[in-house]
Amino acid sequence: MKIIIMRHAKVQIENHKIYANELKSQIEKYDKAPIEKQVKNLDELKELTDNVDFFVSSGLRRSLDSLALLDREANYIDRVFAEVESPYTKLKILKLPLYSWGFWFKILWRLGYSGGSCSYRESKEDAHKASLQLEELAKQHDRVLLLGHGIKNTLIAKSLKSRGWRESKKMSLKNWGYGTYEKVHKSNSH
């Protein structure tokens, strides 16, 4: 059994400066924005997907559009694979680039601030549920690819590894980055 966990294509959204209280509306725009169609290693990625039996997606536009760019479509869609929610604030403080605010709020989130989103603990529980679903799908279909999202992909991978899946290719968090996980079968020794 093999599970490939891949991050979606880069999203076409301007990294302009915003106030902290504008992050929530910018995340909503990000969720609806198109992806960049130019991919340096598109042939390599398409070749990788040639050996996949079953495709999984969060249902978010960037995930579905990325699959389409690979000439694939999702066999299974579930929100449990969506990116973790970013915390935000209603305070109009400091103007920073959009991605900078995303970065700082994710650090605060890891430290316990959840401001309007699921907590880190809750997100880890969701990722565990997602990993169980992927494992079940791999039992049924053998080679499964999740086209998902950065932080959620990382949490899912950690859950798989904690349950005996071997990481044969280390996860990359870049757009189009991926990791490969194979089930380790324990032999019976006498």
Net shape: globular
Structural class: alpha/beta
Low-confidence stretches: none
CATH homologous superfamily?
A: Phosphoglycerate mutase-like
* Biggest sheet descriptor: 6 strands, mixed
- The strand line-up of the biggest sheet is 4-3-6-1-8-7
How many discrete structural domains? 1
The level-1 CATH class: Alpha Beta
**Proportion of beta-strand residues:** 15-25%
H/E series: EEHHEHEEHHEHEE
Q: What is the averaged pLDDT score?
A: 93
Q: What integer value in Å does the Rg equal?
A: 17 Å
Number of helices: 6
Summary of the model, kept short:
The chain is of the alpha/beta class and 190 residues long. The protein contains six helices and eight strands, in the order E-E-H-H-E-H-E-E-H-H-E-H-E-E.
List keywords for this structure.
190 residues, alpha/beta, two-stranded antiparallel ribbon, 8 strands, globular
Provide the fold topology.
Elements (H helix, E strand, L loop, with lengths): L1 E6 L9 E3 L3 H10 L9 H9 L3 E4 L3 H9 L6 E2 L17 E3 H13 L9 H22 L1 E6 L1 H13 L2 E5 L8 E6 L7
Task: Provide structural commentary.
- The protein is α/β, with parallel strands linked by helices and 190 residues long.
- The chain has a single domain, classed as Rossmann fold (3-Layer(aba) Sandwich).
- A hairpin with an 8-residue loop joins β7 and β8.
- The radius of gyration is 17 Å and the shape is globular.
